[in-house]
Amino acid sequence: MAQLRECNFTMLGEKDHGKSTLIGNLLIQTGHTTEERIKEAKKAGKRFEPAHILDSFSFERENEMTLDTTRAQLVYKDMIMRFIDIPGHLELINNALSGASNADIAVVMVSSKKEEGFTEQTRRHIYIGNMLGMRAFVFAINKMDLWNYDQKVFESIKSEIKGYLDGIGLKKPVEFVPISAYDNENMAKKSEKMGWYKGEPLLETTYAAAGKYSKIEDPAKMDLRVLVQDSDLERNAAFGIIYYGRVKEGDPVTIYPSGAKAKIKEMYVGDKRTKSVAARKNVSLLLDGGGEIPRGSIISRNGEKIAAVGSFSCRLFITGGFDRSKKDIAIRMNNMKFNVSALNPVKEISPVTGEQVAPREKVLRPNFAFSAKIELREKQPVEKFDDFEDLGRFSLYSDEKFVGFGIVE
Amino acid sequence: MIEQNLDKLEEKSIFIIREAKANFKNLAALWSMGKDSTTMLALARKAFLGKIPFPVIHIDNGIDFPETYKFREELAKKWGMKLIVVKSEIKEELSGFACCGENKTVALKKAMKEHHFDGLIVSIRRDEHSIRAKERYFSPRNEKFGWDFKNQPAEMWNNYSSKLEDTDHIRVHPILDWNEIDIWNYIKREKVPINPLYYSKEGQRYRSLGCTHCTVPFKSDAKSIDDIIKELQATKKEERGGRQQDKEKEYIMEKLRALGYM
Q1: Helix (H) or strand (E) holding A124
Q2: Sheet containing B83-87: which strands, arranged edge to edge?
Q3: I need a labelling partner for B225 at 20 to 30 A (CA). Which of A244, A255, B188, B246 fits?
Q4: Which pLDDT score, from 0 to 100, does residue B245 have?
């Protein structure tokens, strides 16, 4: 069988707008859940909720809410579509980030129900999705059944969303699809109740967005970047992963942050020696020279330049307020923990309106974004998020607690 | 059943195993001699130039299948494992929930304390159970080995949890993303040795292996890895259908895992 393409889609949006229901029903409609799972989901009592295929904790079912992220996959045409469900509650935003950070495309749920609508929390999610580097946003305007599938309601929400996207300067491709997730209208199949809608149903729209907008990197065109996870001084070996580019035996390389020069003597994938390896493979490198190679070092080819070493500009999204003058701030990049010696916010940005102001207090407020400068206690190599995604994004910690994330600008 | 890209799965699993090795003072892995934990060990060998750089724990309740014990001895020797066998005392009257909760978990707790392990690799997969689908790659356990699923730590991209003061140890799940059929495709591709109980004998085979008390075989003629892959491509049945413990009561997996079960 030919290898299927793969893409990760994250749900975004306010609680109770129908994110889990959407995934649950897509799984049922496309035949990607078993009788046993449906039977198990029915145990929760009351009427059958498609959301309960995802919401598997007793707490989630009893409280009719998603507590933590999960994922489900289905095959559509030639693609494995992985749908990541997240909780919509403001106080569960860390759980939402844990899921959403793994996706390429966002599916934003916006309930058309009068008392629900395009909320502040949904706006925050979109802002976050944009920072995380989503390639496209598919807006699912849900609960259209409440309006008898009226086009005017759809158009009015669409223009409200567009106004917001302009306000925060979001320039990614966007699509809008009217649906009823619970009633399966315009989900896997085109709805007959919305003849005025000329586009494709939700599943096809998200599938097409992945095909059109997913990032494809050609190792031959990229600079070399190998992340060192571990090393062995005795054998002068480095264990890590080629994130970008291609490496060959005999290549002359520079190791950051030390700046030491070395030569690739031998390379192994598993225990097999190999002459040439491209991204993204886990490798073991035996080097000539280079000295001690600390965990977190980046190996590049001689002549290639790393964007920043030690201090950099970034954009932060804060989920837990903290005092930036405290001494216990750290970032984690590719699971390498680096201590921060200074964090200076330049601007505070409202993710709800896009409004920017000079930061007023020492405490960085939760649920706000900041443009900031960070200095690391020890020099470490850092890349711009737009150039080398994997080497330009980090989780932020204060007092060992997760307080937000950032991208290098 | 959905067949994913093995290179991508391998890339992430090896990254996680290497991070586990670098982040804990005393790392160990659970090995049940089943297909999943054996595949995980094959990945660990690939991560570290052919050697498994941490001890491997078998929680032995004395009632595993004879084939399983034989397989354990042969592979442990072949791969040069540092094998720790932890005996758990089986109580005849217990089965299912009580058995897994009592015997396996109590024995595991004892072994973890004795050896001061702070990281434990466990080969669970999301597609086995909707509760396991909610797991993190690095998942902290408290003093009582409980899984505080209402307060799971943030885990963005590949930034995993560290061990904090109130954590007893961290469970590491390197093959969380794999589907059952991916495991078999990988076993085939990498020629991973496998417990013979998975192959059909007299018209029956095991799809998921527990101990002799709670595991039931099912009708199958799959006598080779290719046969098993073909069978899985067509099946609509759940993998753990032959496991008694999953069936007893509502939310049994949630309850078991809250007590320290895998």
Answers
A1: helix A120-132
A2: B83-87, B56-60, B27-30, B119-121, B169-172, B138-141
A3: B246
A4: 63
Nearest 5°: the CA angle B168, B172, B173 is: 145
The answer to whether A89 contacts chain B (CB < 8 Å) is no
- Which pair of structure tokens corresponds to residue A398? 């204060």
pLDDT tens column, B39-54: 999 999 999 989 999 9
Where does the pLDDT of residue B251 fall: very low under 50, low under 70, confident under 90, or very high at 90 and above? confident
Task: Give the Cα separation of A219 and A314 in Å (integer).
Answer: 26
- Strand positions, DSSP E, A319-392: 322-323, 329-333, 336-349, 356-357, 363-364, 369-376, 381-382
- Which residues of chain B does A274 touch, with a Cβ-Cβ cutoff of 8 Å? none
Decide: A238 and A265 in contact? Cβ < 8 Å. no
The helix-helix angle for B35-47 and B6-23 (nearest 10°) equals 70
Measure CB to CB from residue A271 to each of B22, B49, B136 and give the nearest one: B49
**Does a cis peptide bond (omega within 30 degrees of 0) precede residue A393?**
no
Output phi, psi for A43, to 5 deg: -60, -20
Place of tokens 């996680």: B16
Beta carbons of A264 and A251 less than 8 angstroms apart? yes
Decide if A80 and B4 are in contact by the 8 Å CB cutoff. Answer: yes
CA dihedral A80, A81, A84, A85 (to 10 degrees): -120
Q: How far apart, in Å, do the first and last CA atoms of chain A sit?
A: 42
Instruction: Output the CA angle A94-A95-A97, nearest 5 degrees.
Output: 65
Strand partners, A180: A185
User: A–B: how many Cβ contacts below 8 A?
Assistant: 131
Closest among A313, A343, A349, A337 to A325, alpha carbons compared: A343
Q: Which pair of structure tokens corresponds to residue B123?
A: 């080969």
Q: Three-class SS string for A75-94? A: EECCEEEEEEECCCCHHHHH
**Which residue out of B13, B49, B208 would a mutagenesis test of the A interface target, given it has the greatest number of A Cβ atoms within 10 Å?**
B49
In angstroms, rounded to a whole number, what is the distance separating the alpha carbons of residues A371 and A313?
A: 7
Give the distance from CA A14 to its chain's centroid. Answer: 17
Are B78 and B193 contacting, i.e. CB atoms less than 8 angstroms apart? Answer: yes
CA-closest candidate to residue A173, choices A106, A232, A228, A220: A106
User: Which of left, alpha, beta for B87 (phi over 0: left; psi -120 to 50: alpha)?
Assistant: beta
Report the 10 Å Cβ neighbour count for B113.
11
All residues of chain B having their beta carbon less than 8 Å from the beta carbon of residue A284 are: 48-49
What single-letter DSSP state applies at residue A13? S
Q: Alpha-carbon distance A19 to A247, whole Å?
A: 43
End-to-end Cα separation, chain B, in angstroms: 23
Q: Residue A197: which residues within 8 A CB-CB, separation 6 or more?
A: A151, A154, A177, A178, A186, A191
Across the interface, do B236 and A101 touch by the CB < 8 Å criterion? Answer: no
Retrieve residue B134's tokens.
């909610």
Q: How confident is the model over B189-206, as pLDDT tens digits?
A: 999 999 999 999 999 999
CB A7 within 8 A of CB A79: yes
Measure the CA–CA gap between A110 and A175, rounded to whole angstroms.
Answer: 13
ipTM value, please give it: 0.96
**Dihedral, CA atoms, B96, B98, B102, B105, nearest 10 degrees?**
50
CA B165 to CA A63: how far, in whole Å? 31
Helix (H, G, I), strand (E, B) or coil at A365: coil
Six-digit token string for A166: 């302009």
Q: What is the pTM of this model?
A: 0.96
